[in-house]
Amino acid sequence: MAHALPALIVVDVQRAFDQWEAAGKRRNNPDAVARIVDLLAAFRASGAPIFHIRHEGTKPSSTFRPESSGYAVKDEAREEDGEPVIVKRVNSAFIGTNLESRLRAGGIATLVICGATTNHCVETTTRMAGNLGFDAALVRDATWTFDRIGPDGDTHSAEDIHAMTLSNLNGEFARIVTAHDVITSLATLRQ
């Protein structure tokens, strides 16, 4: 039997990204973590399941290594008692973890995905969620990314990368939604 409420999947909201910003990397969606906080509050109030994903870096230089201060979750997005934390070592939260089996065991069909970064772990997790048959909703204002240099040396803004990622996922792998859309829908499901 399918779970009536969606599950919130919070991807990699870790302090390493604060370190990247402090080192001069530029990001988009400065209010993304505030929207994640809003989503966490709404899911907790409704009793809907929440899964926290952490990235564990394996390269010696990774700011996500478990012994590094960047591995820790940002305080605003910290899990509460009973909310599982699933540790991954690759981009997808489904590879090398028990996320899929936990969702299936819980009868969860709909996933609301947020976190960082839009074009890496969020995108990979969202693509796999869609391919695995979940009804995935990616929250556009609760995820962010950083400027990047392309293979030809071109600079691509975080805003452009974010927009292109959403365009690539839209309709094929996920529905693109806002935090407000999700919170409103959750309130309707609870009535």
Task: Describe this structure as you would to a colleague.
- The structure is a single chain.
- With 191 residues, the chain is an alpha/beta fold.
- Helices cover 35% and strands 20% of the residues.
- The chain contains six helices and eight strands.
- The protein has a six-stranded parallel sheet, sandwiched between helices. A two-stranded antiparallel sheet has the order 6-7.
- The longest helix has 15 residues.
CATH architecture: 3-Layer(aba) Sandwich
Question: Share of helix among residues?
Answer: 25-40%
- Side by side, the strands of the main sheet go 3-2-1-4-5-8
User: Any idea what the shape is?
Assistant: globular
- Gap between N and C termini: 20 Å
Number of domains: 1
> What is the CATH third-level topology name?
Rossmann fold
Count every beta strand, where a strand is a DSSP E run of 2 or more residues: 8
Radius of gyration: 16 Å
The number of helical segments is 6
CATH superfamily: Isochorismatase-like
Order of helices and strands: EHHEEHEHEEEHEH
Structural class: alpha/beta
- Would you identify the regions where 5 or more consecutive residues have pLDDT less than 50? none
Overall average residue pLDDT: 96
Main pleated-sheet profile: 6 strands, parallel
Strand content: 15-25%
Question: What is the highest CATH level, the class?
Answer: Alpha Beta
